[in-house]
């Protein structure tokens, strides 16, 4: 039986996104890798976490950050969107720290360095890509 860990997390990341047109609905393919003994190992999709395919990324974002709610910092300070629709253009975020509330995470997704790549698409066409490097550390 897999147990879950309750962690308070600090996430440091750098991200860049490029959209060729307005995005109102998109599929998302995520590749998650964890650094293990100096090597990057692909994390499989387990219970919708890891290297997964999501049919409606916009719906997921709306659940995480409901419409009408401000985008979390530092996205808000940099004027970056956090939910659909995303206007056409390029978005970048300098290295930033995100302080997340206590989260219920599986024990296999714990402290360490991670790389995440998300490719959004619609109608068989790639709309944009985000690459994130992050470190998870519990208090």
TrEMBL record:
Q: Name one Pfam family in it.
A: E1_DerP2_DerF2
Recorded GO MF terms: enzyme activator activity; lipid transporter activity
Q: Which residues form the signal peptide?
A: 1-16
Look up keyword Signal and say if it applies: yes
Q: Which terms in the GO cellular component ontology are assigned?
A: cytoplasmic side of plasma membrane
Gene Ontology biological process terms, A to Z: ganglioside catabolic process
Fetch the InterPro entries from UniProt: GM2-AP, GM2-AP_sf, ML_dom
Q: Does the keyword Repressor apply?
A: no
Membrane-spanning intervals of the chain = none
| Keywords of the record | Signal
Give all residue intervals belonging to the MD-2-related lipid-recognition domain.
25-135
Protein name stated in the entry: MD-2-related lipid-recognition domain-containing protein
